[in-house]
């Protein structure tokens, strides 16, 4: 592993990176929020089904 080469590549990436615009940030936030809600809803459905089945779950 060549440390100076790795540091140079990291610095190059950081120089190319930029902060997102407000529109881009809002779009990414909405998509991430929708994903979190979807995963939570699927988990709730699994919990509800497991609760209704006799002898399965808590």
TrEMBL record:
Q: Which GO terms describe its cellular component?
A: endomembrane system; plasma membrane
The main location class comes to membrane
Tell me the membrane topology, using the record's own terms: Single-pass membrane protein
Going by the UniProt record, its keywords in alphabetical order are: Cell membrane, Membrane, Protein transport, Translocation, Transmembrane, Transmembrane helix, Transport
Signal peptide span: none
> What biological processes does GO assign it?
intracellular protein transmembrane transport; protein secretion; protein targeting
| Location within or outside the cell | Cell membrane; Endomembrane system
GO molecular function annotation:
protein transmembrane transporter activity
NCBIfam families this protein is in?
Answer: PRK09400.1-6, secE_euk_arch
Instruction: Give the protein's biological function.
Output: Essential subunit of the Sec protein translocation channel SecYEG. Clamps together the 2 halves of SecY. May contact the channel plug during translocation.
Subunit note? Component of the Sec protein translocase complex. Heterotrimer consisting of SecY (alpha), SecG (beta) and SecE (gamma) subunits. The heterotrimers can form oligomers, although 1 heterotrimer is thought to be able to translocate proteins. Interacts with the ribosome. May interact with SecDF, and other proteins may be involved.
HAMAP family (alphabetical):
SecE
Q: Which family does it belong to?
A: Belongs to the SecE/SEC61-gamma family.
Q: What is this protein called?
A: Protein translocase subunit SecE
Q: Please give the organism.
A: Halorubrum tibetense
Quick one: which gene encodes this? secE
């Amino acid at each position: 592993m060549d440390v100076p080469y790795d540091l140079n590549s990291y610095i190059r990436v950081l120089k190319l990176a930029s902060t997102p615009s407000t529109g881009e940030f809002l779009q990414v936030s909405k998509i991430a929020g929708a994903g979190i809600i979807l995963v939570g809803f699927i988990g709730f459905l699994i919990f509800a089904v497991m609760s209704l089945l006799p002898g399965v779950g808590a």
